[in-house]
Design brief:
single chain, 234 residues, alpha/beta, Rossmann fold, five-stranded parallel sheet, globular, hydrolase, SGNH hydrolase-type esterase domain-containing protein, hydrolase activity, acting on ester bonds
Length: 234
């Protein structure tokens, strides 16, 4: 009944429905107007995303209003470090993103596809909050690598004529950008708010906003207190 907005990505997407997360905020923002549907997968890269996309988004079903594609943080894991099994080479990352976009364009020609670049990385913080042992004493990800993958994501958006959020650049424009990250990679509460605002602003530019979407049933302000059921006649 309500149109959908899908969120497709890695842990930064899966975690977006946590308390204060950007996905949860998006769902609250569009309450009564659109269903925000989470399809996030912790640890996934674009290679793995392509392995599951046909099951995650089968052919049946109505086209959503929009889908966000937010991969790259794991692809950019350094191949010779502790999270190297998640690494995808830069050129393959671009190829995989193109394939993901092509799938959605074929599946839902009218759906707005929004690409989000991987966020920046605080190299030092990655050592303070390790998810695995780091015997080399080196971070598993670096900001330099993240920015390279972000550029490839933007190149895909340009080639496909899609809107994109250059999260890697936009976040680093803030003097205290490291406070937007909880562990040097994932978003803090402040970072989630930042991403939410970026997504909302871009959706509005794509004509998806509170002003353009109708509520699915009469609002309480539209119900006649003297004859409540009249509002449901149509």
């Amino acid at each position: 009944m309500r149109p959908k907005i899908y969120l497709f990505g890695d842990s930064i997407t899966e975690g977006s429905f946590s308390n204060g997360g950007w996905g949860a905020s998006l769902a609250h923002h569009f309450a009564r107007m659109a269903d925000v549907v989470l399809r996030g997968y912790i640890g996934y890269n674009t290679r793995w995303a392509l392995k599951v996309i046909h099951k995650v988004f089968p052919a049946a079903g109505d086209a959503p209003l929009a889908v966000t594609v937010f991969f790259g943080a794991n692809d950019a894991a350094l191949p010779d470090r502790d999270s190297g099994f998640q690494h995808v080479p830069l050129d393959e990352y671009k190829h995989n993103l193109l394939a993901i976009v092509a799938y959605f364009k074929k599946q839902w020609p009218s759906t707005r596809i929004i690409l989000i670049t991987p966020p920046p990385v605080d190299d030092n913080a990655r050592l303070l909050y390790p998810f695995v042992e780091k015997p080399l004493g080196l971070p598993d990800r670096t900001n330099e690598a993240a920015c390279q993958y972000a550029k490839q994501c933007l190149d895909v958006a340009a080639e496909c004529g899609l809107p994109a959020i250059h999260l890697c650049e936009k976040m680093q424009q803030l003097p205290d950008w490291k406070s937007l990250l909880s562990d040097g990679l994932h978003l803090s509460q402040k970072g989630n708010k930042f991403v939410f605002e970026e997504v909302i602003n871009l959706l509005a530019k794509e004509q998806i906003s509170l002003e353009t979407l109708p509520a699915d049933f009469p609002l309480i302000s539209e119900i006649d207190p003297n004859d409540p059921l009249k509002s449901f006649a149509n």
